[in-house]
Amino acid sequence: MDSISEARRHLANAKEILRDKARKEDDRYQDKKYIKMAGHTAYTGVLLALDALFGNKKKNARKSVEWYQLELSRIDKKITGSFADVYEILHLSMGYDGVQNAKVIIIGLQEAENIINWTEQKMAKAVA
User: Does the predicted model carry a pTM greater than 0.85?
Assistant: First the structure.
């Protein structure tokens, strides 16, 4: 479960970056540099949690978003949709584009938290 704690730490760090550095004004974050940093940090947290669940099934290669989607679709279609949202919002819209809309960012962070919680539950069932 250390990886779940690490995933949560990444998510908390992303929220802290947004709160302390991205300067929210009128439901918009102002500093794209920190929005991008927060998006990458939160997305990495999700991947850490999922890697703990799936293990190292793909040797000597970086896992693609398609790989994660395939693995998730074998377990739970609903969480696959959440992962697609996280990829789109945290990785692409925040991490690359620096989307400034606070409502969009909040949805991405909530979905990330849902995936981390879901992963923790799946891992707990596997141990029990």
Answer: yes
